[in-house]
Amino acid sequence: NNMLLAVTMIGTSEAMNLGIKLGLDPKLLASIMGTATGRCWPVDTYNPCPGVHDNVPSSNEYKGGFGTALMTKDLGLAQDAATRTQAATPLGSLAHQVYRVMCNAGYAEKDFSSAFKFLREQNSDQK
Q1: Which pLDDT does position 98 carry in this prediction?
Q2: Number of neighbouring beta carbons within 10 Å of residue 45
Q3: What are the helix (H) ranges across the chain?
Q4: Under DSSP, is residue 111 helix (H, G, I), strand (E, B) or coil?
Q5: Cβ contact 12:40 at 8 Å
Q6: Which residues contact 5 (CB under 8 A, 6 or more apart)?
Q7: CA distances from 98 to 36, 56, 105 (A)
Q8: CA-CA distance, 29 to 42, in Å (whole number)?
Q9: Are the beta carbons of 71 and 103 closer than 8 angstroms?
Q10: I need a surface site. Which of 6, 64, 70, 91 has the fewest CB within 10 A?
């Protein structure tokens, strides 16, 4: 479950970032995605973009919630299981790598939805 959640959180973060950079209002974008085929828990309940939903970690400087370090641990366990069973999990593997990089970049104690903030900071002056 957490492997799927990590993959959808990264995907939601990427899509929100792209939409915002294209000039879309984050709340409107989340509303559209939440009623379309992209609908998922990170979009409509736990959006990673600050200000889209109240009372979620993204609207509280990514404090609280489920830590990036814990998500990284769970993704490592999933990858170990995938290796043992020879199950192909390319997106799970990539998500594990993204969250490991986030931990190394100082996001370990932030909620795992901080993937949005991490991606925004990768090639932007948005901090």
Answers
A1: 98
A2: 10
A3: 2-21, 26-34, 41-44, 68-85, 90-102, 115-122
A4: strand
A5: yes
A6: 41, 42, 71
A7: 26, 21, 10
A8: 13
A9: no
A10: 64
φ and ψ of 102, to 5 deg: -60, -45
Residue the block writes with tokens 């948005």:
126
Determine the pLDDT at residue 13: 98
Beta bridge partners of 16: none
Burial of 100 (0-12, 13-18, 19+ CB in 10 A): middle
DSSP-derived 3-state class of residue 88: coil
User: Mean pLDDT of successive 10-residue segments in the chain (127 residues)?
Assistant: 98 98 97 96 97 97 97 98 98 98 98 98 68
Give the SS3 label for residue 67: strand
